[in-house]
């Protein structure tokens, strides 16, 4: 599968290294969409990719699928155009808290028959949640996220602080670079207005810890994911980058698990 990546930050560099440098069967990044070609020129020789700043040229280059590794605004601005030509994997899932974008994307999927894959990102258990809610019988979903304090607030603190408590719809507005997980959890379950979120800044940890609690007719489930951070961007979990690689590997594999 020939891949086009949007962005050249921490997650994108993980993908360049793991896919193009270390090589993965049937995967190859050919094209990278950036805003400033000069800044990222070194990537061309290092990873044998072509850089693009024009979206249409990027989409018409030798790629089968687009991987977004940028941010929510980029998804809002570019995804509708992408879906007219290519499948897309999205990691900045917070963009789908906007119901207008969600509706537009649903219409484009029907019209152009391209797929959107929402990677699990820094969490897991989305298969269980979707199964448990197949009859609409999950009653409660709560996400408690704990991150190193310095990745959430500028002021130094000595004891943990709850920086947000409420619904996913509001969490993503206030923490767009930290709460994408709350939106993928919402989309898999009860929706952005009914998924409970607590975000805690903890000065005593160096991991991104997500705890998920699900209650419904099926019973109860609890997951704790203790994520190592991605060295290049400690507010992003290593697993978030891995989840894109996992999605890419599963797309063309006909033995589907879950
Ligand atoms: N679903 C999940 O669990 C997670 C999702 N994320 C999302 O992934 C995104 C990327 O994460 P990182 O790589 O750690 O961030 P990063 O800040 O290291 O890299 C983002 C890159 O995107 C580039 N960019 C921004 N707008 C662009 C545009 N319009 N076109 C091309 N490039 C553009 C930036 O210049 C930057 O190099 C985050 O912004 C966040 O939205 C991050 C962590 C977990
Ligand atoms: O990487 C993480 O642990 C989660 C994150 O930043 C997000 O969901 O936006």
From TrEMBL:
Residue ranges of every copy of the Aspartate/homoserine dehydrogenase NAD-binding domain listed in the record: 7-117
Keyword Coiled coil listed: no
SUPFAM superfamilies found in the cross-reference section: Glyceraldehyde-3-phosphate dehydrogenase-like, C-terminal domain, NAD(P)-binding Rossmann-fold domains
Pathway the protein contributes to: Cofactor biosynthesis; NAD(+) biosynthesis; iminoaspartate from L-aspartate (dehydrogenase route): step 1/1
Molecular function via GO: aspartate dehydrogenase [NAD(P)+] activity
The entry's keywords: NAD, NADP, Oxidoreductase, Pyridine nucleotide biosynthesis
Record-listed NAD(+) binding positions: 122, 180
Function: Specifically catalyzes the NAD or NADP-dependent dehydrogenation of L-aspartate to iminoaspartate.
Catalytic activity: L-aspartate + NAD(+) + H2O = oxaloacetate + NH4(+) + NADH + H(+); L-aspartate + NADP(+) + H2O = oxaloacetate + NH4(+) + NADPH + H(+)
Catalytic residue list: 210
Alphabetical list of Pfam families matching this protein: Asp_DH_C (PF01958), NAD_binding_3 (PF03447)
EC number: 1.4.1.21
Domain Aspartate dehydrogenase residue range list: 158-244
Leader sequence residues: none
Domain of life: Bacteria
Enzyme class: oxidoreductase
Note, other: The iminoaspartate product is unstable in aqueous solution and can decompose to oxaloacetate and ammonia.
Protein's recorded name: L-aspartate dehydrogenase
Lineage: Bacteria, Bacillati, Bacillota, Bacilli, Bacillales
Family: Belongs to the L-aspartate dehydrogenase family.
């Amino acid at each position: 599968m020939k891949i086009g990546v949007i962005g050249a930050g921490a997650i994108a560099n993980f993908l360049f290294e793991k896919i193009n440098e270390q090589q993965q069967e049937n995967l190859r990044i050919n094209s990278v969409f950036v805003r400033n070609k000069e800044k990222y020129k070194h990537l061309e020789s290092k990873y044998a990719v072509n850089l693009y700043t024009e979206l249409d040229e990027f989409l018409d280059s030798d790629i089968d699928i687009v991987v977004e590794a940028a941010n929510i605004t980029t998804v809002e601005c570019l995804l509708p155009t992408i879906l007219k030509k290519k499948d897309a994997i999205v990691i900045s899932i917070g963009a789908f808290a906007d119901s207008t974008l969600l509706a537009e994307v649903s219409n484009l999927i029907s019209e152009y028959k391209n797929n959107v894959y929402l990677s699990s990102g820094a969490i897991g258990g989305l298969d269980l949640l979707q199964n448990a809610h197949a009859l609409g019988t999950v009653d409660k979903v709560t996400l408690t996220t704990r991150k190193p304090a310095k990745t959430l607030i500028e002021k130094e603190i000595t004891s943990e602080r709850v920086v947000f408590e409420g619904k996913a719809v509001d969490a993503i507005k206030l923490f767009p670079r930290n709460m994408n997980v709350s939106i993928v959890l919402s989309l898999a379950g009860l929706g952005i207005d009914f998924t409970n979120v607590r975000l805690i800044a903890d000065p005593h940890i160096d991991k991104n810890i997500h705890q998920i609690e699900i209650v419904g007719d099926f019973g109860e489930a609890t997951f704790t994911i203790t994520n190592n951070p991605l060295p290049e961007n400690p507010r992003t979990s290593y697993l978030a980058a891995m989840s894109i690689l996992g999605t890419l590997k599963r797309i063309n594999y006909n033995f589907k698990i879950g």
